[in-house]
Write a structure and sequence with these properties.
Helix 7 links the parallel strand 5 and strand 6. The protein has a seven-stranded mixed beta sheet, sandwiched between helices. Strands 1-2-3-12 form a four-stranded mixed beta sheet. It is built from 15 helices and 14 strands. Helices cover 42% and strands 16% of the residues. The structure holds pyridoxal-5'-phosphate. The site of pyridoxal-5'-phosphate has 13 residues, from helix 5.
């Protein structure tokens, strides 16, 4: 065994000891509500399919139609022969949804953040080191993109526009290009960044505002357009409320052209395949009409938050479809997850480094196919005083 492999083994043992070891569980899903593991079925509260679109007949039909008409692969990167004519109309739809002049479709949200930020922060293009002001709870892919660019992040306290403002003031008069990076809805907390205040700061300090709208696109904002209106550049995914896979960036024509020329994730990766483009296309057509679903999801989340708080749980600053139950220790989070699973509900324990040490939690996400009955069952399962009652999966 090479020495390196012994090091990997030792790492795994440490993770195990600290309650941090991860593993892959085989899941079967036949609809948007239920998942099965072996013979056991659970109501799924752990996904990001907020509008329950991944089993929607319109997406499936268009994915099939695109596969039949255009094949199951795109055959090359977009700069070679993979830029199928399907992309242009999809990008026009994304630009309209995000109310930006231009959009570009990328392979995945992680890849988009990793490679777009690397390109935008390229000091050889900017002519100086970028000053990147970044919410400390930003997604791993955002930190990854900064690291790939060799850009040091100046991290401000989570969701704290005052702190951001005071950090920006320290660099007043500094000629280096400034950027502000934030998620709109934070993936593990379900709270919303103070975007209006951040946008004012961005203008005042001549900083480019980049917003990751992954968890708002489709499910929040007017017509499901998300919350990133004030951003110069919006990055988001089709893998969450839009039900399938892939990502987009929306902004100016110049930024789009620049990324086509400089963004390694676009240049060196095969274009998304036609069936996925079909699913994206159908989702983009449907999303504006799903106000009833958005209202339903918001009211389920609110019902759960109120109930959980009454039971003494800490739901953080969540105001969206994502609700954490902050347990603190890793073992406490794992224990809560198991308890819910025993009652028929699948909710994943989220542990460091995904969340800061000491804030391990359950992350619940509510979707269009959940019911008030599900919420009440969940709350019963979390209530120490209640008799165990199994869910109707
Ligand atoms: C805020 C945020 N950005 C980006 C991503 C990555 O998106 P994708 O799953 O499409 O790679 C995620 C998903 O985990 C996310 O939560």
């Amino acid at each position: 065994m090479p020495a390196s492999e012994r090091s990997y083994g030792a790492y795994l043992e440490t993770r195990e000891r600290d309650g941090l070891r991860r593993g892959l569980t085989a899941i079967a899903a036949r609809d948007a509500r239920t998942i099965s593991i072996g013979k056991d079925a659970y109501v799924n509260f752990a996904g990001n399919d907020y509008l329950a679109l991944r089993f929607h007949p319109a997406l499936i039909e268009r994915a099939k139609a695109f596969a039949q008409a255009h094949g199951v692969g795109s055959g090359a990167s977009r700069l070679v022969t993979g830029n199928l004519d399907l992309f242009a109309s999809l990008e026009a739809k994304v630009a309209a949804l995000k109310q930006k002049p231009a959009a570009l479709i990328m392979a995945s949200g992680f890849q988009a953040n990793a490679s777009i930020l690397q390109a935008l922060f390229d000091r050889s293009v900017l002519g100086a080191e970028p000053l990147v002001f970044s919410d400390r709870l930003n997604h791993a892919s955002i930190h990854f993109g900064c690291a790939a660019a060799g850009a040091r992040e100046i991290r401000y306290r989570h969701g704290d526009a005052d702190h951001l403002g005071s950090l920006l003031s320290q660099y007043q008069g500094d000629e280096r290009p400034k950027f502000i990076l934030t998620e709109s809805v934070f993936s593990m907390d379900g709270d919303i960044a103070p975007l209006a205040g951040i946008a004012v700061l961005a203008r005042a300090h001549d900083a480019m505002l980049i917003v990751d709208d992954a968890h708002a696109t489709g499910i929040l904002g007017e017509g499901g357009g998300g919350l990133s209106g004030e951003a110069d550049i919006v990055i988001g995914t089709f893998s969450k409320a839009l039900g399938s896979f892939g990502a987009y960036v929306a902004g100016s024509d110049i930024s789009r052209d620049y990324l086509i020329n400089r963004c390694s994730g676009l240049i060196y990766s095969t274009a998304l395949p036609p069936p996925v483009l079909g699913a994206i296309d159908a989702a983009l057509d449907l999303v504006p009409s799903l106000d009833a679903e958005r209202t339903h999801v918001a009211s389920l989340a609110e019902r759960f938050r109120l109930g959980a708080r009454t039971l003494g749980f800490d739901t953080g600053a969540s105001t969206t479809q994502i609700v954490p139950l902050i347990a603190g220790s890793n073992h406490a989070a794992l224990g809560l997850s198991k308890r819910l699973r025993d009652a028929g509900y699948f909710v994943t324990a989220i542990r460091p480094p995904t969340v800061p040490a000491g804030t391990a939690r359950l992350r619940l996400a509510f979707t269009a196919v959940h019911t008030t009955h599900d919420i009440d069952g969940l709350l019963d399962a979390l209530d120490d005083r209640a008799l165990p009652r199994s869910a109707t999966a």
